[in-house]
């Protein structure tokens, strides 16, 4: 018997029920008499928000490193770097006596309006999954737990605790779940946090299908499921659904409800025991890591700077960057002196120090080279005098650096953004400054896309610097002066305008439900399919050097789905400075029975290249890279046929292509029903067999009924019509020549189909 089983045997019903609800805002219930220690959890996800007193909500946070937010981290496309961030966060958890950090967040960026997008990685499930796996490995490799959140379909803050996300099965499996699935299967997080919202009518906290059938049974999740803070509605139902730990506590009534449910026989003790076992396993795993000591704040600050520099995306550059010998620089913008580096809400970190972007510039140029104008008000008001002052500074300098950030309250957990706009003042400021000073660089600080059509023509260069973490001010200076060659690529599409975005007509929902009507067509999958032009596409980002792609190769021209494929391409740095390139591998299915996006990201790699250097980048593509989820078969399936392997520098800059042929090894069961059309019968191998003897008869009869081969009487192709008609309906046309009624004939045929299964 394991130690855990022994404990479960010794625990009273009351102790078990108590363990399944927190003892405080951040702590789990301890059981002293049995030596079950108290466990502490803390936000997440880009730093440790450890309050001074973990037993109370109202308490200030102790200083910790504020790393760049997930939006910036994902833009690095550097899985090793993200793992290092995870390791650093774990070190801070250990020093600050935290057992589990509440992150990463892997919800898809369904709409750029979601107030919490800065905490999430991407619009692409593969990229988000890979980031999460690295982060989890980094943290957990050091003996600290993670909490993968928010499971699932939590893609807006509007009505976040009540909204019903209505998502079809294919979109769920192909878009909204895969990042969680990859993280669970490859990263093995100690805990998974359920979301606040309902998924297809049932709150996530009480969703048996989600928490037990998919997460635990299908994916083999071994840790415990924790509720988002306050997400549980019915404690007993939640336990039955697979929600092991309710947070926060204490909640005496909840504990009592569980005790009573077990006593009255409404809740099986085995369900409670299972939750207790899962919680105890993690509590004791966490206790294996000794806590306390200190962390190297300086080293972590340097790491935060490195990540910020690598996550920044150079969106536009007419050659002005990198800056070199400019003598007079006008620095304009409030965020040059007050760094805007994180968003509002539970992820808000009390930083150990903050780089001031202006001072960091001065360290490179010398303070005498800089002049300053505040540029814009802190709120959304308009002040022409600030614009005039900025123009004066800009015109009397050689270069203007325009630091623009969204008003701080615009991006936060808890509510969505109303639009994708900068303030009217900021737009006027950029237009005015670029009007007087063509050598203007705009540096943006925000957690999600802003629209730029009104002003993008003006500046000589634009940098997306994100909510860049506490060391971002220095990282901006590094990028501006070429100490860091930008290598960030967008992990989300920047649209031209809000109305272009895929969820636009299905957001934010009505009468309590938001219908994910765009299905699998999220982000670039949508823009590509509809040929909607974008401001900047997914995967896009410039460098101070250029890269050339050649010699794409595949391990086999024809391959079986189960064997997968290894693909490679040579990349050369064709410029004069060292740089890093993110090679993106997309697949394109030539033909499918279901609708598929024109391209889907299935692999990527980041390589560093010296000038003139060439490296071969290799990526493995497995069964899943080519499969789609078939709701009727309830499984991932592949189809025979041709696929293009696309090697791109962004989703819209494909440099080389290889075409391969996939051989599916799947033997799929029949899914024919009484309603199946003739086409479906003929497409089904067994259906075609059993129907063969009738098929000729039906088509002859139909031709006769429609008055001739070419259907001249009513101007239609009878065969086309036949194919889309249910077999049952066709049999009615055939009528008397059948031995029995159409219903009986179809039932007999179906019996034959399923007998041969
Ligand atoms: C958030 C979670 C967070 C938790 C604890 C909730 O409101 O949705 O992401 O981990 O609070 O602060």
Description:
This protein is α/β, with parallel strands linked by helices and 757 residues long. It has four domains: 35-246, Glycoside hydrolase, family 3, N-terminal domain (TIM Barrel); 304-526, 3-Layer(aba) Sandwich (Rossmann fold), CATH 3.40.50; 547-663, Immunoglobulins (Immunoglobulin-like, Sandwich); 678-756, no CATH class. Helices cover 33% and strands 19% of the residues. Strands 9-14-13-12-10-11 form a six-stranded mixed β-sheet, with helices on both faces. It has a five-stranded parallel β-sheet with strand order 1-2-3-5-8. The chain has a five-stranded mixed β-sheet with strand order 19-27-26-21-22, with no helix packed on it. A hairpin with a 2-residue loop joins β26 (641-650) and β27. α21 runs antiparallel to α24. The longest helix is centred in the last third of the chain and has 21 residues, at 685-705. The chain binds beta-D-glucopyranose (BGC). Residues 43-44, 102, 149, 228-229, 346 line the site of beta-D-glucopyranose.
How are the SSEs placed, and which strands pair?
Blueprint lengths: L2 H8 L2 H7 L21 E3 L26 H7 L2 H17 L4 E3 L22 H16 L4 E7 L12 E3 L2 H8 L1 H10 L3 E4 L3 E2 L2 E2 L4 H11 L5 E3 L8 H7 L10 H12 L5 H19 L9 H15 L1 E5 L11 E4 L1 H4 L19 H9 L4 E4 L10 H12 L3 E7 L18 H13 L3 E6 L15 E4 L7 H9 L13 E2 L17 E3 L8 H7 L3 E3 L10 E8 L3 E3 L4 E9 L5 E11 L10 E10 L4 E8 L1 H4 L1 E3 L4 E3 L3 E10 L2 E11 L14 H6 L1 H21 L12 H6 L3 H8 L7 H14 L2
Parallel strand pairs: 1-2, 2-3, 3-5, 4-6, 4-16, 5-8, 10-11, 10-12, 12-13, 13-14, 19-27
Antiparallel strand pairs: 6-7, 9-14, 15-17, 18-20, 20-23, 21-22, 21-26, 24-25, 26-27
Helix pairs in contact: 2-10, 3-12, 4-5, 4-12, 5-7, 12-17, 14-17, 15-16, 21-23, 21-24, 23-24
The structure holds beta-D-glucopyranose.
């Amino acid at each position: 018997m394991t130690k855990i089983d022994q404990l479960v045997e010794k625990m009273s019903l009351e102790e078990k029920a108590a363990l399944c609800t927190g003892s405080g805002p951040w702590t789990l219930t301890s059981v002293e008499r049995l030596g079950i220690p108290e466990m502490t959890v803390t936000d997440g996800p880009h730093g440790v928000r450890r309050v001074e007193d973990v037993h109370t909500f109202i308490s200030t946070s102790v200083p910790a490193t504020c790393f760049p937010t997930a939006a910036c981290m994902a833009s690095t496309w550097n899985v090793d770097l993200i793992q290092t961030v995870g390791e650093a966060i774990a070190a801070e958890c250990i020093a600050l006596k935290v057992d589990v950090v509440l992150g990463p967040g892997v919800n898809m960026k369904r709409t750029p309006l979601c107030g919490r997008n800065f905490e999430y990685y991407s619009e692409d499930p593969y990229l988000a999954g890979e980031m999460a796996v690295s982060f989890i490995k980094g943290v957990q490799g050091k003996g600290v737990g993670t909490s993968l959140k928010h499971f699932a379909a939590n893609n807006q803050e509007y009505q976040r605790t009540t909204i019903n996300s209505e998502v079809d099965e294919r979109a769920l499996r192909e878009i909204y779940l895969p990042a969680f699935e990859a993280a669970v299967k490859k990263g093995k997080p100690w805990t998974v946090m359920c979301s606040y919202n309902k998924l297809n009518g049932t709150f996530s906290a009480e969703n048996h299908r989600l928490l037990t059938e998919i997460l635990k049974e299908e994916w083999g999740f071994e840790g415990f499921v924790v509720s988002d803070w306050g997400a549980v509605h019915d404690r007993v139902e939640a336990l039955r659904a697979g929600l092991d730990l309710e947070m926060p506590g204490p909640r005496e009534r909840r504990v009592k409800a569980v005790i009573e449910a077990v006593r009255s026989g409404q809740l099986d003790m085995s369900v409670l025991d299972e939750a207790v076992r899962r919680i105890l396993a993690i509590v004791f795993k966490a206790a294996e890591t000794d806590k306390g000591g200190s962390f190297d704040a300086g080293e972590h600050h340097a790491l935060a700077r490195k990540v910020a520099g690598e996550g920044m995306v150079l969106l536009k550059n007419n050659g002005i960057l990198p800056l070199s010998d400019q003598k007079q620089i006008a620095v304009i913008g409030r965020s040059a002196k007050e760094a805007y580096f994180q968003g509002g809400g539970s992820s808000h970190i009390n930083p150990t120090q903050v780089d001031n972007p202006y001072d960091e510039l001065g360290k490179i140029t010398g303070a005498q080279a800089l002049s300053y104008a505040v540029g814009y008000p802190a709120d959304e008001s308009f002040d022409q005098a600030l614009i005039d002052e900025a123009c004066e500074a800009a015109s009397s300098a050689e270069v203007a650096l325009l630091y623009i950030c969204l008003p701080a309250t615009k991006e936060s957990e808890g509510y969505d953004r109303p639009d994708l706009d900068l303030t009217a003042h900021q737009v006027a400021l950029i237009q005015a400054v670029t009007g007087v000073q063509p050598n203007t660089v705009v540096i943006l600080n925000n957690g999600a896309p802003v629209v730029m059509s009104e002003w993008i023509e003006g500046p000589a260069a634009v940098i997306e610097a994100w909510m860049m973490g506490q060391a971002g001010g220095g990282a901006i200076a590094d990028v501006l002066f070429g100490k860091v060659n930008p290598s960030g690529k967008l992990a989300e599409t920047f649209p031209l305008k809000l109305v272009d975005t895929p969820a636009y007509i299905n957001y934010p929902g009505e009468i309590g439900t938001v219908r994910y009507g765009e299905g699998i067509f999220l982000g670039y999958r949508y823009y590509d399919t509809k040929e909607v032009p974008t401001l900047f596409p997914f995967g896009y980002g410039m460098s101070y050097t250029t890269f050339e792609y050649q010699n794409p190769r595949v391990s086999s021209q024809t391959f079986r789905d189960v064997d997968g494929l290894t693909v490679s391409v040579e990349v050369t740095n064709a410029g004069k400075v060292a740089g890093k390139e993110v090679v993106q591998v997309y697949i394109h299915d030539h033909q499918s029975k279901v609708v598929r996006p024109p391209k889907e990201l299935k692999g990527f790699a980041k390589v560093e290249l010296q000038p003139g250097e060439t490296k071969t980048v290799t990526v493995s593509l497995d069964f899943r890279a080519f499969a789609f989820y078939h709701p009727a078969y309830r499984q991932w399936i592949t189809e025979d046929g041709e696929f293009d392997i696309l090697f791109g520098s962004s989703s819209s800059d494909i440099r080389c292509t290889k075409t391969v042929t996939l051989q599916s090894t799947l033997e799929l069961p029949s899914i024919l029903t009484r309603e199946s059309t003739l086409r479906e019968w003929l497409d089904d191998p067994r259906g075609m067999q059993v129907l063969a003897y009738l098929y000729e008869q039906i088509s002859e009869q139909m031709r006769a009924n429609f008055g001739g081969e070419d259907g001249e009487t009513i101007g239609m192709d009878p065969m086309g019509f036949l194919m889309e008609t249910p077999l049952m309906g066709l049999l009615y046309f055939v009528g008397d020549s059948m031995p029995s009624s159409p219903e009986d004939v179809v039932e007999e045929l179906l019996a034959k189909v399923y007998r041969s299964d």
